[in-house]
Amino acid sequence: MTVAELPLPEGYRLVALERVGSTNDEAKTLARGGAAAGTLVWAKEQTAGRGRRGRLWLSPPGNLYLSLIVRPGGAPAEAAQLGFVAALGLGEALLEVAGPALPLAYKWPNDVLVGSRKLAGILLESETGGRGAVDFVIIGIGVNLASKPENVEFPATSLALEGFADIAPVVLLRAFVQHFDVWAARWRQDGFAPVRSAWLGRAGGLGDDIRVRLGRATLCGRFLDLDADGALVLDAAGARRRIAAGDVFPPLG
Ligand code: BTN
After folding, report:
1. Minimal CA–CA distance to 23: which of 60, 66, 58, 70?
2. Which one, of 46, 45, 36, lies nearest residue 14 by Cα?
């Protein structure tokens, strides 16, 4: 499938680039200039790819790097739920291209794992307009198709390492947009509840002991639930803690 042949649902427009610093930055510039929701920036390679919390996202050719402009309106806390909507769209796209036996799991807040290794990450960036309503959200997605980073804190994998060597970025891109579009419509219509329950159906580590890093502090406890807003609910030595932002790791030892 070539880019020109790419069938996208109505309302999506592809901006395809050979090489860019960061597709999120490119999408942000377009959104600030008034680009419509559904604008999708895809690059074969990034020279300054960014992960969550300012981390570097190594972006050699062969993997998928895309950023989608969404204009959901509403409050920033609600717009943050789009990370879960995107994870579901990406998860279903991966199951479509690699087959239903792929042992896919969602890792809070927005990662996609195969087994217990990270295959894909999602970086949500938003800007608000007047009265604090969200002007736009950029959903940035990176998927390790051909290669994975070495020496990363959380172990990574690629679809090639999992036995799927020939999946072209454009094939996964098309599948993602189709599944995301369905989930985004469901979210707009029915709210976060169906998203939450589909995400929990494949949540990695649910019921297990985990470590959650919050800036400098780390909390240990049992991963109990995802609450109605998308926060992680942890049982930390008998105290129920609600965590809105952090990084999850397996327990030490
Ligand atoms: C993470 O897990 O830390 C999120 C990684 C997000 C990486 C993607 S690649 C496409 C888009 N452009 C970027 O600079 N980052 C996101």
Report:
1. 66
2. 36
Calpha distance 20→188 (Å, rounded): 32
Contacts of 37 (CB under 8 A, 6+ apart): 11, 69, 70, 71, 136
Strand pairing report for 39-46 and 13-20: parallel
Structure tokens at 28: 């942000």
Position in ligand 1 atom list of the atom nearest CA 59 = 9
Q: Which of 126, 141, 247 to mutate to test the pocket of ligand 1 (most atoms within 8 A of CB)?
A: 141
- Domains along the sequence of the chain with CATH: 13-200 (3.30.930.10), 209-249 (2.30.30.100)
Among candidates 12, 140, 29, which has minimal Cα distance to 83? 140
How close is the Cα of 130 to the center of ligand 1, in Å? 27
Judge if pTM exceeds 0.90: yes
- CA of 121 relative to ligand 1 center, distance in Å: 6
Residues paired with residue 45 on neighbouring β-strands, in sequence order? 19
Q: What is the pLDDT along the chain (253 residues), one digit of tens a residue?
A: 667 668 899 999 999 999 999 999 999 999 999 999 999 999 999 999 999 999 999 999 999 999 999 999 999 999 999 999 999 999 999 999 999 999 999 999 999 999 999 999 999 999 998 888 999 999 999 999 999 999 899 999 999 999 999 899 999 999 999 999 999 999 999 999 999 999 999 999 999 999 999 988 999 999 999 999 999 999 999 999 999 999 999 988 7
Ligand 1 centroid distance, CA of 109 (Å): 14
